[in-house]
C-alpha cells in the first residue's frame, strides 16, 4: 500500500485543495484531483525523508489550541510593553534553551511555536541540535522563560513525538 500511496495525508490534502480551487464537484474535476493526488506524492517520494514519528497524533489538537491561546495572550502582553513601558525599562535578552527533543520535526515545531508567539523568536539552533537560542523582547527573568518553554511546549512535544 505504501508503494501506491506513500503519503496518504498529502494525497487527501491535494484532492481537497484541488476541489476547492476549481469550485466544482463535477466528475471530471474529481477524477483529475484523484490523478493529481496519486501521482504528485509518487513523483516526489524520492525527495521526502521518512515520515515523522508522531506517537500520539491526537495530542496535536490540544497543543494547537494551547499555542493559539498563548499567541493571543502574548499579543496583549507585547502591546502593553510597547504602549505603556518606558523603552529604557524593556529588558531584551537572548536565552539558551537546552533541548530534550530528539527528532528534527519536533525541534522545528518547537522553534516555530516560539517564533509564532509574539515577543519571542528562535534565533539559532546549536550545531549538535541540543539547544535553541531564543530572543525575548522583555525577559526580566530569563530562567522563568526558559522553564516555561520547556514545561509548556517541549514537554508536550515529547509526548506527541514519543
From TrEMBL:
* GO MF term list: monoatomic cation transmembrane transporter activity
For this entry, the protein name equals Na+/H+ antiporter subunit E
Task: Give the UniProt family note.
Answer: Belongs to the CPA3 antiporters (TC 2.A.63) subunit E family.
Q: Which residues cross the membrane?
A: 12-40, 60-83
Question: Which PANTHER family does its entry note?
Answer: NA(+)/H(+) ANTIPORTER SUBUNIT E1, NA(+)_H(+) ANTIPORTER SUBUNIT E1
Q: Which InterPro entries match?
A: Cation_antiport_E
What is the protein's species of origin? Answer: Neogemmobacter tilapiae
Q: Does the keyword Transmembrane helix apply?
A: yes
Report how it sits in the membrane. Answer: Multi-pass membrane protein
Is the keyword Repeat assigned to this protein? Answer: no
- Spell out the subcellular localization from the entry: Cell membrane
Q: Supply the alphabetized keyword list.
A: Cell membrane, Membrane, Transmembrane, Transmembrane helix
NCBIfam families attached here? PRK08965.1-2
- Which Gene Ontology cellular-component terms appear in the entry? plasma membrane
Amino acid at each position: 500500500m505504501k508503494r501506491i500511496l506513500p503519503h496518504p495525508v498529502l494525497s487527501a490534502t491535494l484532492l481537497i485543495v484541488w476541489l476547492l480551487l476549481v469550485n466544482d464537484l463535477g466528475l471530471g474535476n474529481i477524477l483529475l484531483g484523484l490523478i493529481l493526488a496519486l501521482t504528485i506524492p509518487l513523483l516526489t517520494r524520492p525527495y521526502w525523508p521518512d515520515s515523522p514519528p508522531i506517537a500520539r497524533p491526537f495530542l496535536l489538537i490540544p497543543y494547537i489550541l494551547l499555542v493559539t491561546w498563548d499567541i493571543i495572550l502574548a499579543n496583549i502582553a507585547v502591546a502593553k510593553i510597547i504602549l505603556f513601558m518606558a523603552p529604557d525599562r524593556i529588558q531584551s535578552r537572548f536565552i539558551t534553551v537546552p533541548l530534550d527533543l530528539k527528532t528534527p520535526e519536533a525541534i522545528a515545531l518547537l522553534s516555530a511555536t516560539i517564533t509564532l508567539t509574539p515577543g519571542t523568536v528562535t534565533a539559532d539552533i546549536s550545531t549538535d541540535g541540543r539547544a535553541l537560542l531564543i530572543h525575548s523582547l522583555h525577559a526580566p527573568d530569563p530562567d522563568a522563560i526558559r522553564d516555561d518553554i520547556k514545561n509548556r511546549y517541549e514537554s508536550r512535544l515529547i509526548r506527541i513525538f514519543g
